[in-house]
Structure formats: structure tokens, C-alpha cells
UniProtKB/TrEMBL annotation, chain A:
This is PRELI/MSF1 domain-containing protein. Residues 1-170 form the PRELI/MSF1 domain. One of its GO terms (cellular component) is mitochondrial intermembrane space. The lineage of its organism: Eukaryota, Metazoa, Ecdysozoa, Arthropoda, Hexapoda.
TrEMBL record, chain B:
The lineage of its organism: Eukaryota, Metazoa, Ecdysozoa, Arthropoda, Hexapoda. This is Uncharacterized protein. PANTHER family: TP53-REGULATED INHIBITOR OF APOPTOSIS 1. Belongs to the TRIAP1/MDM35 family. One of its GO terms (molecular function) is phosphatidic acid transfer activity. The keyword Disulfide bond applies. It catalyses: a 1,2-diacyl-sn-glycero-3-phosphate(in) = a 1,2-diacyl-sn-glycero-3-phosphate(out). GO terms for biological process: phospholipid translocation. Residues 74-94 are annotated as: Disordered. GO terms for cellular component: cytosol; mitochondrial intermembrane space; nucleus. Keywords: Disulfide bond.
Amino acid sequence: MKIWTSEHTFNHPWETVVQAAWRKYPNPINTAVIGTDVVEREVINGVLHSHRLVSSQWYFPSWVQKIIGTPKVCHASERSTVDTNERQMTLKTTNVTFGSFLSVDEVLQYAPHPTDPSKTLLRQQATVSVEGVPLSRYMEEALTNNISFNASRGRLGLEWVINKINTEVKEIATTADDLLMQTKKSIDGITDTARKSMDELSASKQKIHF
Amino acid sequence: MNSIGENCNELKSKYDQCFNTWFSEKFLKGDKDDTPCKSLFQTYQKCVQEALTLHQIDIKDLKTNHIDGTEFEKKSAYSDSKNKNDNGTSEKES
């Protein structure tokens, strides 16, 4: 069994990062994940529990493929919780495909950074275990390297999604600003028209006086 | 993001859109009532469960993960930087 751990700090608040985490795929950097499906989802005691099926394309080295075969798509089961009181999102993923001899378990945890709560700390851990096939130790090594590589792409992918969300928020703000400007303009227009009518009215009033 | 059932993509996209808005605008702001997207979820579920059967994926009976989420607290990975390389990652064999 091999254990791999990693930490990464996102310079964004927890609320932004967890929104992006749900919208992580598709992203142009980490293209391995080709599908996600929610199979169960419920709020229990204020905590959001979700169960998703994550389908991805795995690119195994050819010698690994010779031993375990090559499925087109690998499936994994992801169970997660989002707790807004604790400000924690935890995702636990385990492989479904090749489950009889291979076990890849991954845990991701997003929480506010302990020394700077305006940032988010991602802690990630994966255990890889291959049993009952030739070269299992080498295979564990190769898979762990794969996970490490994919994790860095995953973080970049998430940053990409965060930027996208921030741009959307800005766009909404700009649209709101535009709307406000337009409203202001039309109100100004109405005021102008009203003023003109008032002027005209007083002009005609004056005329009457004359 | 696509669904495992090609015919579920549209239902999934409608549900996802509802969920993302609900998550940002309601759940994160303290409103935990999850009824707003329930009917879209149920329609999408009907489709996806059929697709799972078709692909012979039995996800309900899956084992739960070996790693417990509290593992992080026990190890307090943040304060323990001794075994790390420059990327903030570490590997060990057992």
C-alpha cells in the first residue's frame, strides 16, 4: 500500500472554492473526467450529503494495461459532505472499476486556512493498494505518480473554474450597473420631459395671464 | 458535464443549473431547505438510474472508503512539514 498526501492553499475564501468544487468539471486543464452523475443527495441536520458517480478516462502505462486490461472508462464513487457551520467540505472517492484487485481511495478536504481564514486550505490524501496481480508494487508506484500528477492538474483546473465564477460575478455586477445606469438615464429623461412639460405649462399659464 | 446516460444530459444540465444557484444563493447563506430543486432531481434520477442499470454499475452497494476524514485532524498535516518535499506533497509506503 502506498500513501500520498498533499496540501495546497487557494487565495480565495472557502465559499468561493466550494462553489467551484461542484463545478470543477469540465475544465480545460484536467480533462480526464468525462462525466459526473449525482445518485443521492440530501440535507441532513444542515449538512449537505452527496453521492456521485465520477467517470474518467485513465491513461495507464502500457505495461500496466497488459496486466490489468484497458477499459474505456473508469468509474469511481464519490461521497461528500458540505458543512457550512464548520466551513468544511470533504470528498471521499473510491474506485469502482478494477475493484477486485485495485483500491484507490482519495480524500479531499477544503477548509479555511488556519492562519488566514480569507484563504482556503486543501488537504488531499490518497492510498493506493494493488493485490493479487504481478508487479503489484511497481503498479502502486506508477498509480501514485499518476495521482500526484493529476492532483496538480486538478488544482490548476479548480483555479480556472474559480476565475470563471469570479468573472461571472463581475459580469452580473456590470449588467446590474448597466441596468442602474439605464434606469437612471430614463429617470433623468422622465425628469427632463416632466420639467419641459412644467415649463410649457407655466409658459402657457403665462400666456393665459397675458 | 456529461451524464453517463447520453439521454440524461439535458435533464442533468437543468438540475445542475438549479443546484448551483441553490448552493450559492441559499445553502451557503444559511437556507438549508433543499426542496427547490427536488422535482428536477427526481426526473434526472429516473433517467440516470436506468443508465446505471444499462451500464451494469451497482453504485449503492459500494464499500465505504478506507480513509476516515478525521485522519487529517489526527495527523495535522499542516503543522507536520518534516516529511514534505518542495511541492508540499509527501509519500510513504506501508
